[in-house]
């Protein structure tokens, strides 16, 4: 019997399965195995693995945490996540076990739903099916404990679940497991190709901002040559310009973009398509340097550009250009404008530069490094839930209408940008969600990156 550690997402699954991040281009695809208690999920997991890994006992509730293993079938590798029995109406410890199963589904690429063919469809099975449909994940239906032809007739009744063909299998004896595994491979995305010692490509940086704030001048200064045309006429740059530049002993890919107009619909001809290409360049970038004219007051257009970068999920660095033209009086008012207008993005690194002369341009690389580090920061699930426990204990959610929602569990499924899912007993107020985000930044950093927080309240179910 082996002791397995629970994992918290595809990224961690690759690590637990012994798959080095340096050896692959990304984590292995993940299959979550879910179902009611005592339907044979762990036995089926052992059958998929071809070895006895998962603890199996003829008692419901042996598996409680999400336990991860690496499996191979027909030359393809994938990660299998074994879960505890899922009962959406459970309470107490069983509720926490069910919550782990729901988290496993949210983090998986495909789901293997196991049903006891001898028992048939239960109310719990139908409730779980509704949740699986809402998840949008591919679902393979396994009718377990089919040991003979009579059992196959029982399995045929599971068509009524509406999940497609039920694969009649016997986890104990291996009957029908090959066809089920073929269906699993069809539902899972292809595993990333091996990339032993493959060098990472240059970090991609988009330079964005209003027309005529000095974006092209900045690129030319970084490149050490007149790579792009610079003119006082606004809108000189139309097509995004890619340039490979050596900075700080490393290679970067900078993308100079056209100035973002007030409204795309106000543009015409090449300006309209330039706006579309700028949006496309943003999609290719990892971090955006938003260039602002420090000599002029912050405008609504500047704020809209910063907000659009934040909404796109890219890391953000704000560069106040033309600093050589900023006097003491302007600096005073600019500080007041930053406090008032950029309060939502206080987490974004800010640098003051003069692109034409190159003054303090060398400060760009440290700012980019900090933003990218925050963009790729991952908080272990154990540390996240410890933090949430302390936070809720010290600052509980306000009572509204006699009810006080609680945070049951939190996880970070992805990075770049960091995304968090909070499973709660009820909806959280927007102000409390912003409070959690602020405290997350205080605790774990996340400099230069937006944070996406999703709240998933537990659904209320009518009593029969």
Give start-end ranges of low-pLDDT stretches. Answer: 1-25
| SSE succession | HEHEEHEHEHEHEHEEHEHEHEHHEEHE
Q: Helix/strand/pairing class, anyone?
A: alpha/beta
Q: Quote the beta fraction.
A: 15-25%
Number of helices: 13
Distance from first to last alpha carbon: 41 Å
User: What is the CA-based Rg, rounded?
Assistant: 27 Å
- Major sheet: order of its strands? 2-3-1-4-5-6
Largest sheet descriptor: 6 strands, mixed
Shape: elongated
Q: Can you give the helix content as a percent range?
A: 25-40%
The beta-strand count equals 15
Mean pLDDT: 83
Structural overview:
There is one protein chain. The protein has 13 helices and 15 strands. The chain has 464 residues and is an alpha/beta fold. Strands 2-3-1-4-5-6 form a 6-stranded mixed sheet, sandwiched between helices.
